[in-house]
Amino acid sequence: xxxxxxxxxxxxxxxxxxxxxxxxxxxxxxxxxxxxxxxxxxxxxxxxxxxxxxxxxxxxxxxxxxxxxxxxxxxxxxxxxxxxxxxxxxxxxxxxxxxxxxxxxxxxxxxxxxxxxxxxxxxxxxxxxxxxxxxxxxxxxxxxxxxxxxxxxxxxxxxxxxxxxxxxxxxxxxxxxxxxxxxxxxxxxxxxxxxxxxxxxxxxxxxxxxxxxxxxxxxxxxxxxxxxxxxxxxxxxxxxxxxxxxxxxxxxxxxxxxxxxxxxxxxxxxxxxxxxxxxxxxxxxxxxxxxxxxxxxxxxxxxxxxxxxxxxxxxxxxxxxxxxxxxxxxxxxxxxxxxxxxxxxxxxxxxxxxxxxxxxxxxxxxxxxxxxxxxxxxxxxxxxxxxxxxxxxxxxxxxxxxxxxxxxxxxxxxxxxxxxxxxxxxxxxxxxxxxxxxxxxxxxxxxxxxxxxxxxxxxxxxxxxxxxxxxxxxxxxxxxxxxxxxxxxxxxxxxxxxxxxxxxxxxxxxxxxxxxxxxxxxxxxxxxxxxxxxxxxxxxxxxxxxxxxxxxxxxxxxxxxxxxxxxxxxxxxxxxxxxxxxxxxxxxxxxxxxxxxxxxxxxxxxxxxxxxxxxxxxxxxxxxxxxxxxxxxxxxxxxxxxxxxxxxxxxxxxxxxxxxxxxxxxxxxxxxxxxxxxxxxxxxxxxxxxxxxxxxxxxxxxxxxxxxxxxxxxxxxxxxxxxxxxxxxxxxxxxxxxxxxxxxxxxxxxxxxxxxxxxxxxxxxxxxxxxxxxxxxxxxxxxxxxxxxxxxxxxxxxxxxxxxxxxxxxxxxxxxxxxxxxxxxxxxxxxxxxxxxxxxxxxxxxxxxxxxxxxxxxxxxxxxxxxxxxxxxxxxxxxxxxxxxxxxxxxxxxxxxxxxxxxxxxxxxxxxxxxxxxxxxxxxxxxxxx
Length: 930
Hints:
Layout: H1 2-12, E1 21-28, E2 39-42, E3 48-50, E4 56-60, E5 64-71, E6 78-84, E7 89-91, E8 94-96, E9 106-107, E10 116-117, E11 125-128, H2 130-133, H3 142-149, E12 153-154, E13 171-172, E14 180-184, E15 187-188, E16 218-224, H4 229-232, E17 239-245, E18 250-264, E19 278-296, E20 300-311, H5 334-341, E21 356-369, E22 374-390, H6 401-410, E23 418-436, E24 439-457, E25 475-495, E26 501-517, H7 521-524, E27 549-565, E28 570-581, E29 585-597, E30 602-613, H8 617-621, E31 624-632, E32 635-643, H9 649-654, E33 662-675, E34 679-696, H10 706-714, E35 719-721, E36 723-744, E37 748-763, H11 777-781, H12 785-788, H13 791-798, E38 804-814, E39 817-826, E40 829-831, E41 858-860, E42 863-875, E43 878-885, E44 921-929
Parallel strand pairs: 1-7, 1-8, 14-17, 32-35
Antiparallel strand pairs: 1-4, 2-3, 2-5, 5-6, 9-10, 11-16, 12-13, 14-15, 16-17, 18-19, 18-44, 19-20, 20-21, 21-22, 22-23, 23-24, 24-25, 25-26, 26-27, 27-28, 28-29, 29-30, 30-33, 31-32, 33-34, 34-36, 36-37, 37-38, 38-39, 39-42, 40-41, 42-43, 43-44
């Protein structure tokens, strides 16, 4: 016991201590206000800190002469000489001037040692200075901003995909939205309640709604491109996105408006490629953002942001070439009826493009020192948005004959049903941080909640129209909710071992809860079973009462994180994390990373780690029947597909196993080079092996099994799908960033950044080249493995997202005038048809345009999108910016195969996308900062 007490005292140290070093205060040169969060680094060492809420800092350091690097996002970095004498403290007060330069920023993500410069980090971290770049871009949401700035990040808006039309899924390194961990101010951000269940990219995944965080509230974003589950827990397989909120005082904001001014080939199929294009203006987007920060007493600060966005829908539909009205006497009478009614085929257009979204939110970020050693902090926000999107048009000819007369009495020309979303996102974090002797501590509680409710309009329940009931056109279809509460205790201390040892340890307790709320009866009920038609609201039937309810789980974790500066040139870090989940057991993960400086400007770095992703509660408990349209004999046919849980009776019948966690092994090696504080180059190569990846299977029919047929009928479904751990994958890639930053005479500056990523994602295969699929014996015996996981599923992992992306951004400023020019090259993507055998051309379908037998596979070539923005300082603190995204109106390739043409309606693929299909966007923005 005596030895243990001595050890504890040695670790915790005295509650107060004194050592020689440097202290001071950092302020804004313009208004003298304190700057919290400024990085202070002792050059050529890894000893550093950041300023507190009052701009003060203290560094304990041995006697000697040093260069102190002072850096803060948006300000010109400074290198200041300082001399420390034995037993004394040197005072260093610094005023910082605003600047557009962003070299030498300090990153906090991926390290618990108090921050390192980006070039000194043992793992690759991108820094996106959102508060600066929003002056020069037309994008108004975080997903789109990151897509065009960070090549490893990709988010394309989806269309005709139910809820995914309203919350954009996002990827890092081509992996799933749920394989990247999102933090806000270093604290875990909750996921969305939405499950992406339609047939688009990221099918079966659950992501985080980054767009629920107003861009106006964000100071910078750090993207850790490395596995970090041992440091932060579940989901951090591809990396970590840490969104850092603004802390500055004063008033700032922006007002912007833009819209698409474009031309696209709407009539490509109708006119056989001749005279196909139409000019269009749509997608008008208005944004108003306001940020205000002020002091509380001498040391505290409060920063508040409000933002409102109104985005109109876009539409890039093709003209429908199929049959509109039922035949009369075996004769198609579309032309006659259209003429009689004074209509054209344009009156039957679908809406294929961005959904309409209107909403806004508020964000609070605050820190208040309670004493010289303890601060209280809090941050969080409220966001609410309403969306509107449409599904497939229900043409009169496609309405089931048994209900057609009554439906056409309501909708004489058929109808285009709409999905209206109501999404509410709430987050709140609060805690205490400070010092107990030599130990830093951070005790916090973080809560987040996302609710997604569905309202269906311009629709009908087919089974209701032949009854005496009041026929509805609008339905409350229910919704989903997800909440998460996380309690963290983090401790850290630096020890004088070799050139510095940082010890961090901590514990976490997390509770997740997922809810399904049933829709109103008419949104799901089958009122006329004998009619044999789809029940529930057309386009999106409501959630069943038997699927409604709440599901929860909890987890506890503990971690140890060590970071040792062995020499001035060599740092070695290691982390170990143990977690226990109430629903699947334990997991233990590790990480080691190192960086070695060959010279002051050249370093090598490498890391190795294991990781995991707990299956989300959404994937475990989501259950619903959806209307899908599939191609049969050249026609689009509605199919009612039920998603069942892994512990359901249909899953048991088919031998679908219960979900377990995904596990990973990651390796990264790279180099960093910095020359004359102007050039900076980072190159990193990585490999990530992920076992037991979770997919949403395809649709199983009853196959003559009476028990399964009865289960499907009870859910108003004709097919069933499930979430399952189906395959293993290997991801390899190279990522590189080259930046140049300098000033010229005459108050001129230029910054250029060339960045690129090259990705190869593969499903693991056996020696014969066949994918290794973890299917049950029942599926193998009944020849249903291809339904479990098929070619299209494999293509979503391997080729449906850009395999490479490069960007070149140039910012030039002279006096009050500035220009931003950016070109982003989106690599090729491909679609693989799940229904064909690529080795048997005789089985391929006939292309409706060429008359030839062709596979439906298609590769869409790389495209370059060019953005430009011109800005001018009207007066001090007010800036005007005008510009264009996609200046040259570039679209991805049109379909050349027949299946996804869908009778002319889909000019561009909805299965695979590179940069969306909206075309040129013209915008103007006024920014102010006082």
